[in-house]
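Lab manual, section 2.4: Encoding a predicted structure.

Procedure: take the sequence of the chain (104 residues), apply the prediction step described in section 2.3, and record the output as structure tokens. A sample record is shown.
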Amino acid sequence: MALALWLLIVVFALWLAVKMVGGLFTLILDLAIGAIAGWLAGKLVQGRGLGVVKNIVLGILGAAVGSVLFGLAGFHQAGLIASLVSATVGAVVVLYCVQWFKTP
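Recorded output:
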């Protein structure tokens, strides 16, 4: 059951990434930023991480969440550092949400 949920999250994250970006290089760059953001979120939210691989997957999904959250707040990412910051914020939000649902 848990494996199926993680597989669904990965498929959704990849689908969302392909929809949001224009080319293969941009997709690879966005996946790398999401992976770094997931790793950073795991370090920032100590005691709530799910392991390196799951944090990276959540970071990729968190990059999309962060982009939406920053867009709703009126901020738009311009550059690598801004994208990394918004992706990390999104990954932290996703990590907290996953922990919230995981806790009985």
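Check your result against the sample. The mean pLDDT is 77.
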